[in-house]
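Whiteboard transcription, Tuesday session. T.W. wrote the structure tokens on the left side:
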């Protein structure tokens, strides 16, 4: 056998950076040997929408409407995080009832976000029937959110000093019906996702993020908890009404008896958090106190209070993807002098590198999706072998993932 015969020639596999359907593109560069990923690097930050720049030219009440549009899936966490920071600076005391309403909407958003992710994960594995099931049952949470806030997306319910809408006794039965439905479905969803042989084979011991790597890379949310990190802002640094509620971080060993930090464990954490959120909402409905829903109903007076405020603060919220952070500084002017947003995905992106090393090309979609990234997905893949350049579309990359599942089922 001649020297080098039988060895797999290394090559570079670039993925990205843009796709027209999504907001935030990211460029991946994989170093491959055959179908195996030897190393990976990525470059986010290809575009910037200028929301922070616009915000520093508006007053806090106007900025609230911008924060609601940072993310179409979990907008309320950005609004709440910003409002918490402004309320600290301006020393605005939020009514207790408003805090409970904030938690209810916050947890409903977590439910619909996790169910949306579960559908995406199923699609990446080739189980479109499971995608349609999860997205169909997700609609009930969206209907309840619309009933409470008036909107399915960009809810517009949280404002500086409280909330814009109350939850009336007439709305309680609809919320209770939704919770009962999800609590009844949870065991079925766990069976469909976690007891399926093909999903188990595609996700168990794939995309592993160890406890040490999760801590070292400062991961947050379900990505961190799936690696055994007992961390949740609702538990560790309660905000809104969470200090009155029974919230404990969900870890995968609560279901499987062990923690491996793989894609499977990240599914476990998110599905169990759906049930946890239902319990939190139910507790809020039973314990929610009477009273006002805003500290200052007159917007002109609220703006006058904010305009006099001096100082800086950080608002921190446990978003569906993990800790969301808003830094605000105000110097007695109508507009903040500084506003900086750190979304959850920024903390989780670096975890892709240890997750992807040593895995197969067909595993890229589900591993990348397993952190629930708030990023644009890729438009195409350019594969360069022996000087020849072949173009793989996003659909073809998805096809490779589906074929990997079919081979396991054969």
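and on the right, the sequence the group agreed on:
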């Amino acid at each position: 056998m001649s020297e080098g015969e039988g060895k797999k020639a290394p090559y570079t596999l670039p993925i990205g950076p843009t796709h027209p359907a999504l907001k935030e593109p990211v460029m991946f560069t994989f170093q491959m040997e055959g179908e195996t990923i030897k190393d990976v690097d990525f470059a986010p930050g290809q575009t910037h929408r200028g929301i922070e720049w616009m915000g520093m030219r508006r007053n806090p009440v106007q900025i609230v409407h911008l924060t609601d549009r940072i993310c179409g899936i979990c907008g309320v966490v950005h609004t709440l995080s910003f409002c918490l920071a402004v309320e600290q600076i301006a020393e605005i005391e939020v009514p207790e009832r408003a805090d409970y309403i904030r938690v209810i909407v916050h947890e409903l958003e977590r439910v619909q976000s996790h169910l949306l992710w579960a559908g995406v994960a199923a699609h990446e594995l080739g189980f479109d029937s499971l995608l349609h099931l999860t997205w169909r049952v997700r609609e009930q949470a969206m209907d309840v959110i619309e009933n409470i806030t008036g909107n399915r997306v960009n809810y517009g319910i949280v404002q500086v000093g409280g909330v814009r809408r109350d939850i009336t006794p007439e709305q309680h039965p609809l919320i209770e019906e939704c919770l009962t439905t999800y609590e009844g479905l949870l065991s079925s969803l766990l069976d469909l996702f976690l007891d399926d042989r093909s999903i188990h084979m595609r996700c168990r011991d794939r995309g592993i993020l160890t406890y040490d790597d999760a801590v070292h890379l400062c991961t947050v949310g379900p990505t961190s908890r799936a690696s055994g990190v007992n961390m949740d802002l609702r538990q560790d640094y309660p905000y809104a009404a969470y200090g009155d509620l029974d919230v404990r971080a969900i870890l995968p060993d609560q279901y499987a008896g062990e923690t491996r930090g793989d894609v499977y464990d990240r599914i476990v954490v998110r599905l169990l958090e759906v049930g946890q959120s239902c319990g939190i909402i139910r507790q809020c409905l039973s314990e929610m106190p009477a009273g006002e829903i805003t500290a200052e109903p007159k917007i002109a007076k609220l703006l006058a209070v904010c305009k006099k405020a001096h100082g800086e603060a950080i608002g921190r919220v446990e978003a569906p993807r993990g800790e969301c952070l808003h830094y605000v500084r105000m110097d007695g002017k109508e507009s903040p002098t500084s506003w900086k947003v750190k979304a959850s995905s920024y903390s989780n992106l670096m975890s892709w590198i240890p997750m992807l090393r040593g895995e197969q090309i067909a595993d890229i979609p589900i591993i990348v999706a397993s952190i629930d990234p708030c990023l644009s997905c890729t438009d195409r893949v350019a594969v360069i072998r022996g000087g020849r350049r072949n173009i793989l579309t996003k659909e073809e990359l998805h096809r490779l993932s589906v074929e990997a599942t079919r081979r396991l089922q054969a």
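Someone added at the bottom: Confidence is low (pLDDT under 50) at residues 19-23, 376-384.
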